[in-house]
């Protein structure tokens, strides 16, 4: 989506070749009207699917997820991060490894908010190795809910998580896919 690619080129900052900082519209200061425009694009891309809920992970996923849920007129559910592995029977949980932070964390969702038969659209700001989405998929499976697809704003194509998920049959719709980035610039997938 050209709108997002242009915003990344004007406002993004590449840190050390692997991290893209987009704090002035997505990760710290949030351009809500801009996210609403992204949400309309996802609404078009998933127009053939019946969706009952949007599911994301705290914290940065919540803003994207809220715009998307508003556009689709469904609730947003966000998985909560837990440091401890003490989970109880009232929640679905998944253990996720973050390459960016080199640590494992648990995410949990109350069994009250994902029900068997729900048709779930996953949402996140960044898609890198795909572990966060894989964790959410595991939670949906545990709940007997169907994963309709994944809506990601920025995919780092060179980290392969998006392509692995597509190979596994998930409809992944990223609005900007970065093939390469360094101090000389950013290249998007055509
Ligand atoms: P993965 O889920 O695709 O495997 O990615 P990874 O574990 O490496 O990502 C972990 C966290 O880092 C996520 O946020 C993700 O949104 C963020 N992230 C990954 N790559 C980038 C990047 O290039 N730029 C920025 N700005 N963020 C990136 P998180 O740890 O869950 O934190 P938050 O959602 O609470 O902010």
Automatic annotation (TrEMBL):
<keyword id="KW-0328">Glycosyltransferase</keyword>
<feature type="binding site">
    <location>
        <begin position="128"/>
        <end position="132"/>
    </location>
    <ligand>
        <name>5-phospho-alpha-D-ribose 1-diphosphate</name>
    </ligand>
</feature>
<dbReference type="InterPro" id="IPR029057">
    <property type="entry name" value="PRTase-like"/>
</dbReference>
<dbReference type="InterPro" id="IPR010079">
    <property type="entry name" value="Xanthine_PRibTrfase"/>
</dbReference>
<dbReference type="InterPro" id="IPR000836">
    <property type="entry name" value="PRTase_dom"/>
</dbReference>
<comment type="similarity">
    <text>Belongs to the purine/pyrimidine phosphoribosyltransferase family. Xpt subfamily.</text>
</comment>
<feature type="binding site">
    <location>
        <position position="156"/>
    </location>
    <ligand>
        <name>xanthine</name>
    </ligand>
</feature>
<comment type="subunit">
    <text>Homodimer.</text>
</comment>
<keyword id="KW-0808">Transferase</keyword>
<comment type="function">
    <text>Converts the preformed base xanthine, a product of nucleic acid breakdown, to xanthosine 5'-monophosphate (XMP), so it can be reused for RNA or DNA synthesis.</text>
</comment>
<feature type="domain" description="Phosphoribosyltransferase">
    <location>
        <begin position="24"/>
        <end position="157"/>
    </location>
</feature>
<dbReference type="Pfam" id="PF00156">
    <property type="entry name" value="Pribosyltran"/>
</dbReference>
<dbReference type="GO" id="GO:0005737">
    <property type="term" value="C:cytoplasm"/>
</dbReference>
<feature type="binding site">
    <location>
        <position position="27"/>
    </location>
    <ligand>
        <name>xanthine</name>
    </ligand>
</feature>
<dbReference type="GO" id="GO:0032265">
    <property type="term" value="P:XMP salvage"/>
</dbReference>
<dbReference type="GO" id="GO:0046110">
    <property type="term" value="P:xanthine metabolic process"/>
</dbReference>
<feature type="binding site">
    <location>
        <position position="20"/>
    </location>
    <ligand>
        <name>xanthine</name>
    </ligand>
</feature>
<dbReference type="InterPro" id="IPR050118">
    <property type="entry name" value="Pur/Pyrimidine_PRTase"/>
</dbReference>
<dbReference type="GO" id="GO:0006166">
    <property type="term" value="P:purine ribonucleoside salvage"/>
</dbReference>
<keyword id="KW-0963">Cytoplasm</keyword>
<dbReference type="GO" id="GO:0000310">
    <property type="term" value="F:xanthine phosphoribosyltransferase activity"/>
</dbReference>
<comment type="pathway">
    <text>Purine metabolism; XMP biosynthesis via salvage pathway; XMP from xanthine: step 1/1.</text>
</comment>
<keyword id="KW-0660">Purine salvage</keyword>
<protein>
    <recommendedName>
        <fullName>Xanthine phosphoribosyltransferase</fullName>
        <ecNumber>2.4.2.22</ecNumber>
    </recommendedName>
</protein>
């Amino acid at each position: 989506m050209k709108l997002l690619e242009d915003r990344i080129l004007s406002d993004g900052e590449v840190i050390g070749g692997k991290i893209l900082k987009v704090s002035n519209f997505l990760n710290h200061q949030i351009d809500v009207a801009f996210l609403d425009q992204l949400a309309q694009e996802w609404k078009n891309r998933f127009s053939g699917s019946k969706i009952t809920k949007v599911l994301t992970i705290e914290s940065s996923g919540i803003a994207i997820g809220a715009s998307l849920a508003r556009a689709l007129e469904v609730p947003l559910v966000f998985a909560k991060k837990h440091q401890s592995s003490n989970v109880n029977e009232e929640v679905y949980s998944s253990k996720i490894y973050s390459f960016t932070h080199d640590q494992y964390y648990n995410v949990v969702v109350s069994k009250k908010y994902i029900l068997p038969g729900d048709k779930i659209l996953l949402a996140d700001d960044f898609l890198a190795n795909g572990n966060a989405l894989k964790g959410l998929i595991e939670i949906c499976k545990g709940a007997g809910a169907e994963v309709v697809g994944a809506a990601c704003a920025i995919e780092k194509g060179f980290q392969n998580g998006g392509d692995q998920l597509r190979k596994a049959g998930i409809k992944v719709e990223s609005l900007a896919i970065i093939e390469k980035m360094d101090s000389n610039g950013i290249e998007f997938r055509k």
